[in-house]
């Protein structure tokens, strides 16, 4: 197994390395890839020093699997070049997610759709992954009619430069601006670019990707995505209307029995999910489970996960593991 991590110097890339180590992903050779700016730079992983290489050199090495987290334009240009030499690309960017010929995979939900000839596999948007993982068992039992989601997203979701902006603001220094406004002590109802319909691209990703992952265009979804000055993970308020009525105890039980989901729901003892506790964890945390008393068959829930983990690195490594376990790579 020759494995390439493309974008290895970035936030998601370094998280991928941690997850590969923790999950003991089996490989014989590791290629750490970034832009030409970083080529030649040294990175250490598991006590060994690696020299960062550029994309052309990485393609020439014909890796078996390449996990990409280097932005959409890099993926659009380079994923096909890797695919051409036989590499399976698992891509964290949004470049291929809505391409009808590419699978959009959360292994616990639709890993079974993967086939041996899939060459570019898309990792969904971080906010979408944590929401669909928590909703999947409930959808199976009660059917979903409509989802209303509002997010509270970590600055780590924008990458290293955004974390630098927030930290510089905290120190009173003049930062290089990634966001249009100050992020520390502020809330931006704006993630990714605005679309002609007034939604942001992040909101449209949540809407469209949810339908694709569940393979159900009839699910109604509306989203408001918001950036907050927090590290550690994304939080979401999700209001979901089911086709059938539910029992709250059964909802708790279904979620508790779902691999990768942890229920933290004990309001009497102030137990609920928070990014502070989700940080560096692979699981998706669910709490504040309560009936929406304003309309039938509707549940309110609070979902938190580390966007760099299940929202990106963990999900990508799980896809790679699935391929290995099923002898597809
Ligand atoms: N952050 C998240 O929560 C999250 C979640 C899901 C998906 N993603 C996606 O993952 C990707 C990376 O996000 P990030 O947060 O890790 O960003 P980041 O911290 O800014 O890192 C970007 C990485 O991409 C590399 N890169 C940039 N331009 C490149 C080029 N032309 N050729 C090769 N490598 C290039 C950078 O290398 P240099 O160091 O050499 O510039 C760096 O390793 C994005 O597509 C993002 O949408 C992020």
Automatic annotation (TrEMBL):
Any GO BP: lysine biosynthetic process via diaminopimelate
Pfam family of the protein (one): Semialdhyde_dh
Entry binding sites for substrate: 153, 227
Pathway the protein contributes to: Amino-acid biosynthesis; L-methionine biosynthesis via de novo pathway; L-homoserine from L-aspartate: step 2/3; Amino-acid biosynthesis; L-lysine biosynthesis via DAP pathway; (S)-tetrahydrodipicolinate from L-aspartate: step 2/4; Amino-acid biosynthesis; L-threonine biosynthesis; L-threonine from L-aspartate: step 2/5
Binding site for NADP(+): 9-12, 37-38, 307
Gene3D superfamilies named among the record's database cross-references: Dihydrodipicolinate Reductase, domain 2, NAD(P)-binding Rossmann-like Domain
Record flagged with keyword Iron-sulfur: no
Enzyme Commission numbers on file: 1.2.1.11
Any one GO MF annotation of this record: protein dimerization activity
Catalytic activity: L-aspartate 4-semialdehyde + phosphate + NADP(+) = 4-phospho-L-aspartate + NADPH + H(+)
Highest taxon listed in the record's lineage: Bacteria
Keywords from the UniProt entry: Amino-acid biosynthesis, Diaminopimelate biosynthesis, Lysine biosynthesis, Methionine biosynthesis, NADP, Oxidoreductase, Threonine biosynthesis
Active site: 126 (acyl-thioester intermediate), 234 (proton acceptor)
Domain (Semialdehyde dehydrogenase NAD-binding) ranges: 2-117
Binding-site residues for phosphate, renumbered to this chain: 97
Similarity-based family: Belongs to the aspartate-semialdehyde dehydrogenase family.
PANTHER family linked: ASPARTATE-SEMIALDEHYDE DEHYDROGENASE (PTHR46278:SF2), DEHYDROGENASE, PUTATIVE-RELATED (PTHR46278)
Function: Catalyzes the NADPH-dependent formation of L-aspartate-semialdehyde (L-ASA) by the reductive dephosphorylation of L-aspartyl-4-phosphate.
Quaternary data: Homodimer.
Full protein name: Aspartate-semialdehyde dehydrogenase
